[in-house]
Amino acid sequence: MPGLFSSTFLSGNFRNKIRDYISCFCLFMFGLSVNHAYAGPGIFINDGTDDGCIWTFDKEDYSPIGDYFGNTAPADKDSAGRNSPASVKYHIPSIQQLGGAATLKCLSKDRDTQTDRVLFYGNSKEQGSISLTLGGELFVNNGNLGLGGGTDTKAMRIGSMATLTGPSGLRSLAIGAGEIATVASGDDAIAIGTAAQAAHVGSIALGLQSTTELPSLVKDVTINGIKLSAFAGSNPASVLSIGNDTLKRSITNVGAGRVSKDSTDAVNGSQLYAVAEQATLGWNLTANGTDKSRVSPGDTVDLSNSDGNFVIGKHGTGVTFNLAPDLKVTSLVAGNTFLDTNGLVITGGPSMTVFGIDAAHLKISHVADGAVTATSTDAVNGRQLFAVSEQAASGWSLTVNGMDKSRVAPGDMVDLSNSDGNLVLSKHGTGVTFNLAPDLKVTSLVAGNTFLDTNGLVITGGPSMTVSGIDAGHLNIRHVADGAVTATSTDAVNGRQLFAVSEQAASGWSLTVNGMDKSRVGPGDTVDLSNSDGNLVLSKKGKDVTFNLASDLKVTSLVAGNTFLDTNGLVITGGPSMTVSGIDAGQLKISHVADGAVTVTSTDAVNGSQLHRVAHTIAEHLGGDAHVNADGSVIGPQYTVQKKRYKTIYDAFGGVDENLANINDILHDIESGGGIKYFHANSIGADSRALGTNSIAVGSDSVASGEGSISVGNGAQASAHGSVALGENAAAPDANSVALGAGSKTSEVVATKGTTINGQYYDFAGDAPSGTVSVGDKGAERTITNVAAGRISVESTDAVNGSQLNAVNQAIENLAAGVTENDKFSVKYDRHSDGTKKNSMTLQGWDSATPVVLANVADGVHKNDAVNVSQLKAGLSTTLGEAKAYTDQTALQTLDQANAYTDKKFGKLNEDIMATRIEARQAAAIGLAAASLRYDDRPGKISAAIGGGFWRGEGAVALGLGHTSEDQRMRSNLSAATSGGNWGMGAGFSYTFN
Description:
The chain is α/β, with parallel strands linked by helices. The strands form 18 sheets. A seven-stranded mixed beta sheet has the order 5-6-7-8-9-10-13. Strands 14-58-55-53-51-49 form a six-stranded parallel beta sheet, with no helix packed on it. Strand 62 and strand 63 form a beta hairpin. Helix 4 packs antiparallel against helix 7 (about 610-620) and helix 9 runs antiparallel to helix 11 (about 880-925). Keywords: Cell outer membrane, Membrane, Protein transport, Signal, Transmembrane, Transmembrane beta strand, Transport.
């Protein structure tokens, strides 16, 4: 009997009425003991209005179709013409041949006794009586399986009586066994598994006691001040839960998901491990761009100096770089001044070398009294010349730092000026103002055989100029300009001045600043020396005036090569900048980034090694030979569908589509008379066996031996309590676990409470899973796509998708770029060929062939301070110490600020990496989420749906097939889902009679 067709039971030919009325409801893949639809005593149909029924059967040599209206078998032909030879083939069976009292076999209350037969019944007075009904439910195997629907909600309930009588939402589906109802009360919701509750619109509760919640919008997440956003799937429409607050499940054999900005694929543990591994690779340390060394997390970097020119100190996480009080260098260039082992040379000015002193037609001041004898080679000063002079001016005396007392005679002019641009002098009337220039240029100290300190300048084997006097080293002092000739003058005088004695002048003297705005200062006038910007401290003791740099300097800007510092911040031309507008890495990398802390509150940057480890972990969990290359790129998995291998999910589903096309061809053959319409099982294997209590077995050689287990597919095995095996040769030997897909196999559930990375232990949420969901096996993994963006927190058990991992990658890359740029402009020690540090530090600017100039050096204060050119000209004693004090202070402030900034950024980077590591490992532990199943209702379409879900650390997977006939009268679907070792399975069927 190829199939029976149903329509409204109306008048007409009896045989046609019977054929139109009878509909074969096949229990597709359920493995029930009904055998074939045309075998056994028969099929009985009762409309519920009386005890009569329509019947047909095929037993022994009888194949009749008839109707009953009493307690006995009908006669060959009654007065109404029923059971006539035209409608009954051969002869009418007896009551005994029918299996007993015929009327009892037609009553709905007799459903428990239906053996080797199918009973259809319904109330024709109620809504939906025109369609084929099963009394509101399908009752099979004494209550082990029930199918029920709600005409008011268009919902379907499959399973126990508790589930059949439970509430339901519009178009919802509930599948569950046991005494506790499985409820899908949300519209378009799906609940599969004992006591599963899907109470929200479009939600899916998959597995024993799984419950749903409202979906969470995860548009962005902020970790220690760093905001990660632009997640794909950030606005999920619904939730799929495979557990509850206390019942968690793990998902195994997950294929590697795509990691990109738009990816909603679930990532597995191997991908997450790869990112974590990359994030913990540490950073590289180089000196002058060479001799790179790996600094791993926990390693120590020793900052040292080998030539004694730098003093390095550490305070907590701060490192201080100071110039040593005594510097030793080969040469020193300060503007036009050059200092090396031969001595001191000022281009266009004086020089003092091993060859002698050349004043270059300029004055030599602060000359002590020289010996005046017939054999003396000492230089004589103005005071000595004045003693010889017969005329003396009444004028006034001018001294600097208690030395070089000069007589200013009437009519003489004192020109106060600055030659290196570090002082700005101005005169107002008889008042003179000394200010530091806004942009300062400073210098430093020792070169070869030339030694400069607070005592003065000494050239080994040559001249010296110290507080004890000037020793020309038995060399000539040439080109000495005319010195001041006064009673207190300490200027050196030349032979011309000694030969001619100056005339007395009483007309006073002139005062100028930088050669401008000359004013006459007469005898008895007062000259007021002051400072207006606070950068210069002037003091007078008696007739002595002291000029000192202020302890705290204030300037408009500072230029050092390509580096410019002003009130807006620090800018390096063609490089990074740190201003009030923020930090710009200048399109350069941040390298040598230490592992950042990966915590829920971390703001550390993560490095490439941490991200590589996370990607590696995800790739491992995705399986399918997915792995991470050394450059961080991820090689995707390969999947097998029906013994064919596919490299992408799209191609894998293409293989599924091809198999569905084959199914469609088979269905077409069935409709053409090749078998039972719409449903067919083609197998010659052994029968399925449901051995466990409340178990279901479907398919050839399928065995469900565990209590409450479900086994669907040829050779599928569900042998543990609550286990589910779905697919050919799928095996679920572990309690509450699910093997989903052909060849899938579960393994013992493993509780992953945390992990240790580089000696640091991290706890995970969802660390007590009750079962495992496997979507493949080793070497045959599968990917899960369309995963909504999961919440990222320390308690979250949501799955994360590829776009969220991609956002972490971008954050790490941006931070790494900044660290690389900082490294380019850091001060580094020289190294030996074996990589050890030298006690030297070489400064190298844009041009490696040009020496580096230290500009903007203030006047030194203390004994070992650096001096600038101005101080060297004005006096090399006290001025030298003051310059060093300012240099130390300025260097300390600059390095403290730079170190504080670097420490802050490295600390933030470390926290971010730790946060990323924890979040990524949580994602690997909690599984993934997928959308609910959806079938194609268009005529003649056979559709397949697959989905996975995630909620609070647990995951689930659902599979389904749906079919709509060409005339749209018949619709059917088969679905199976699992979570935490508990499986639900359902089939739906509807037929429209008009």
